[in-house]
Design brief:
heterodimer, A: 250 residues, alpha/beta, Rossmann fold, 7-stranded mixed β-sheet, 35% helix, B: 354 residues, globular, binds thiamine diphosphate, binds iron/sulfur cluster
């Protein structure tokens, strides 16, 4: 029987995430991947403004706390400053990556920047207390869409994977989820693929991970997992949107 | 004697940076500093450096943040509206104790303003280039040679104190051609950057570059520590030039382009028998407060000349502390003060003092 142990990719610092939040699971998947690929010592993590702002205390690699939405630009600076063997990733929420940081995301992808974006889509602004995110579903109730997101007024949610996959610099783009153990295993595989693409210098990679926010969704952790299955997955289809892991983008 | 070149101010900014060990540049086009980026895009690849045109000034300054975190000497350049966009990143850079050099070749504002030279970003540069309690070291060259010299100082001091440096130039400085020679001496050994986030190689604990402190006492402690460094800078790094101040009744205070125009007027005024001299701040932060205080002992009045509605004049007044009258003459909107108008103002002051 394999033993279930803490990965050395994470520090011993207790995480501050709410009970049932899947941020913690995703941290573990990223950390395990860095260890398994033997690149923890070469990794630099760029953490966002959002619930994961203190991830620099959790990842056991060098970390930079970036301004809100700017992580892909910071990652670009780091990646180009260091030898190409360095492994640079961002860890960003949907407000961070798909609202305030849309330009940074799109252009890092367009440049084929050899970095990996870990994109946590929980359809809400967690840290600031549950406002509408660019990924909030139509009719979803949030603090700032009290009657549900009216797309005729608040606009449509953004499907980032579909959009980024259109860019020539994007080498590996996949959307996964965390709402069942099977999905968690698939998410791990996707994350590993993305980092491999970076290590092999094939271009930009982004993994979008559907994640829960029981606190701001106003649900139990169990109900939150069901909500992902019933509401998010139909709107945000899982799968690989771009795979140039063989040929690379250039 | 080291070799002399005839070069444009903007090109000297770029060449001097490279000779000071800067190997990375991130920018976004804006007049009147585009030659800096053009020069860098040609030269940096030749030396194995990195030139990258970002999608905005916001991204450019965050690329600087990343490169500085990784321990490299890095620079960005822009002009007034672009500097406003960089202010968020500059605040984070200052709060994360990252060294870098930022260039502002000022143009006229506010808003899109105009593309003619200006000095209206003095407040922004010295008092508030971003949110929170912090300073940049601000250098104001007044010749092409001084650009070359100050760029090197800006890099060396930024590394030494882990405080970002800003070169506050203007369209005249950027476009002007003058002979220049570059320091033969190697840039001071860059201090060990053991704090850099360059990968721990499984040999040390992780390094973290961060500006978040949720406990007020902890945040206050980091800010106070930084202000202690600012005190050391204010003690040791103030730069200024004095010209004909010893017997002067009137002291003109001016920096950058307006100091050059003022200096030419001083000689004409002296020929007319008016005892006038000039104090030219070279560092705008730290400001030569003490030097101005000293001059209060001998001078009867001060005249601040700027290409703005009057910004540095407030620091002159703070230094003078009401002991002497301080007047102001300036033009704005991209206009430069005419020598005859400055002379007229000096003559008026001279009359009043009689
Ligand atoms: C420039 C700026 N604007 C706004 C904020 C406030 N803010 C902090 S976190 C956040 C949203 C985070 O949401 P998301 O990126 O979805 O991450 P989550 O917290 O859900 O993980 C906002 C708007 C900020 N810190 N900085
Ligand atoms: S607020 Fe939401 S996203 Fe943030 S830690 Fe809590 S559950 Fe997770």
């Amino acid at each position: 029987m394999p033993e279930f142990k803490k990965t050395i990719g994470l520090t011993d610092a207790p995480m501050h995430y709410c009970p049932g939040c899947t941020h913690g699971i995703i941290h573990r998947l990223v950390a395990e991947t860095l260890v398994e690929l033997g690149v923890l010592g070469k990794a630099i993590g760029i953490v966002p403004v959002g619930c994961a702002v203190m991830a620099y205390d959790y990842f056991n690699c060098d970390c930079i706390q970036a301004p809100h939405g700017r992580a892909p630009a910071v990652a670009t600076g780091v990646k180009r400053a260091l030898p190409p063997e360095s492994v640079v990733f961002t860890y960003q929420g949907d407000g961070d990556l798909a609202a305030i940081g849309t330009a940074e995301t799109v252009h890092a992808a367009a440049r084929g920047e050899n970095i990996t974006l870990i994109f946590i889509n929980n359809a809400i602004y967690g840290m600031t207390g549950g406002q509408m995110a660019p990924t909030t579903l139509p009719n979803q109730i949030t603090q700032t869409t009290p009657k549900g997101r009216d797309v005729s007024q608040a606009g449509f949610p953004i499907k980032m994977c579909e959009m980024i996959a259109t860019l020539d610099g994007a080498a590996y783009i996949e959307r996964v989820s965390t709402h069942t153990p099977k999905h968690v295993m698939a998410a791990k595989k996707a994350i590993k693929n993305a980092f491999k693409v970076q290590i092999e210098k094939k271009g930009f990679s982004m993994i979008e991970i559907l994640s829960t926010c029981p606190t701001n969704w106003g649900m139990t952790p169990a109900d939150s997992l069901d909500w992902v299955e019933e509401n998010m997955v139909p709107f945000y289809p899982l799968g690989v949107f771009k795979d140039k892991s063989e040929e690379g983008v250039f | 004697m080291s070799k002399k070149f005839l070069m444009k101010g903007n090109e000297v900014i770029a060449e001097a940076a490279i000779r000071s060990g800067c190997t990375m540049f991130f920018g976004y086009p804006i007049t009147p500093q585009t030659e800096v980026a053009a020069y860098m895009s040609k030269r940096l690849p030749e030396i194995g450096g990195v030139y990258l045109q970002a999608e905005s000034e916001v991204s450019a300054i965050n690329m600087v943040l990343g490169a500085a975190s990784a321990g490299r000497r890095v620079m960005t350049s822009s002009s007034s509206p672009g500097i406003s966009l960089k202010s968020e990143g500059i605040s984070y850079i200052a709060a994360s104790d990252l060294p870098c050099v930022i260039i502002n070749v000022q143009r006229a504002g506010p808003g899109l303003g105009g593309i003619q030279p200006s000095q209206a970003d003095y407040f922004q540069a010295t008092k508030g280039l971003g949110h929170g309690d912090f300073h940049l070291m601000v250098f104001a060259p007044s010749s092409v040679q001084e650009i070359a010299d100050l760029i090197k100082t800006a890099f060396d001091l930024s590394d030494k104190y882990r405080v970002p440096s800003l070169i506050l130039a203007d369209g005249i400085m950027g476009q002007m051609m003058e002979p220049v020679s570059f320091s033969e001496e190697e840039s001071t050994d860059q201090p060990d950057k053991g704090w850099a986030t360059s990968g721990h190689d499984n040999k040390r604990a992780p390094n973290i570059v961060n500006s978040l402190y949720l406990t007020p006492d902890e945040l206050e402690k980091t800010v106070i520590e930084r202000y202690q460094r600012y005190d050391v800078i204010a003690q040791n790094e103030v730069l200024f030039e004095k010209y004909l101040t010893e017997d002067a009744d009137i002291i003109v205070v001016a920096y950058g382009a307006s100091s050059r125009i003022s200096k030419s007027v001083i000689n004409t005024a002296r020929e007319k028998g008016i005892k006038v001299g000039i104090l030219r701040p070279i560092t705008l932060w730290p400001f030569p407060t003490q030097a101005i205080k000293e001059l209060c002992k001998t001078a009867k009045s001060f005249l601040c000349v700027e290409m703005s509605m009057g910004q540095m004049v407030e620091d002159v007044r703070l230094a003078v502390e009401g002991v002497r009258p301080v007047s102001f003459y300036g033009r704005t909107g991209g206009n430069t003060p005419r020598p005859e108008d400055i002379l007229h103002k000096i003559e008026q002051l001279n009359e009043e003092e009689k």
